[in-house]
Amino acid sequence: MLRLPAFRYISPRTLAEATARLAEGGPDTAAIAGGTDLLPHMKRRQRCPTVLVGLRHLRELQGIGGTPAQGLTIGAGCTLAAVTQHPGIREAYPALAWAAGMVATATVRQMGTIGGNLCIETRCTCFDLPLHTRDALGHCFKDGGALCLVAPRSPRCWAIASSDAAPLLIAIGAQVRLVSAAGERAISLRDLYRDDGLRPLALQPGEVLTEILLPPADGRRAAYRKVRRRGTIDFPVLGVAVAARFAPDGTVKDASVVLGAVASAPLVVPEAARLLEGSRLDAENVRAAAVAATRSARPLENTDLAAAWRKHLVRVTVERALREMAHA
To answer: What topology does CATH give the domain 61-119+160-326?
Structure first.
């Protein structure tokens, strides 16, 4: 049985206290909310913080407010189940409710938070092996080693971003609010990510994601499609999020196409979006956008299923997502 390493748990009373504790603790201190990502990593000795600062109970990270006309705010501590079941999200942002509902299992969604899913650790076949196997094969960049075992000649880590919520939220133009002991800032969710498997988040030391800010619904349509080996539990080996606003005549005013699980950050594909804008979502334009998205995707052999097959599925899945959005 895998056991957790020893650690000290701190239960701050306020967000200000939590950010102060995180700032004081340095790299050996980690924030924890649902724990569905962090605790398995600790059991596998992939991360071994000696101090955990609890966020789940903080009122500042809870609640869903606002209106579809003005935009909703979602507390980062809201569970994925709460996001999936919220009437306002289901009505005005149904693709977000669907994407959140695609994470893992119903049990995990009752524990895992929307903020945690956005900040989920990048994944790699080599990094996710048991400790004794990693000791035998050698440790990769992400595991304290000197090279990437997937691409040994590469100077960087290629672990992949595997959030289900992030591609969809980026596609609809969401922002996030970040708070630290030094203050707070709001940034585009897209800017939260760096294409670096080793350091995937552009968070400052001690900074906490507190809110997700959704733009006004404004007639925007969106869709999310997930590819995984099993129909539940598994992380995506490909995620495709598409969003668009339409003119009264049915032409696309603006669009976005975002891929998950093919790079170390959610991959925005502006070339595919440009092919859709100013035109209708007919078969020819949908196919052209899907081909453009496929050219941008460069999956490696660092997750479940073959990279060549996953690249082929980019075209298929983008086409399906666009057709689904067209009929939403």
So the answer is: 3.30.465
CATH of domain 1-54: 3.30.43.10
Provide the b/e sequence for 9-48 (b: ≥16 CB within 10 Å): ebebeebeebbbbbbebeeebbbbbbbbbbbebbbebbee
Has this prediction a pTM greater than 0.85? Answer: yes
pLDDT tens for the chain, 328 residues long, are 589 999 999 999 999 999 999 999 999 999 999 999 999 999 999 999 999 999 999 999 999 999 999 999 999 999 999 999 999 999 999 999 999 999 999 999 999 999 999 999 999 999 999 999 999 999 999 999 999 999 999 999 999 999 999 999 999 999 999 999 999 999 999 999 999 999 999 999 999 999 999 999 999 999 999 999 999 999 999 999 999 999 999 999 999 999 999 999 999 999 999 999 999 999 999 999 999 999 999 999 999 999 999 999 999 999 999 999 998 8
Task: Name the token pair of 53.
Answer: 């600062």
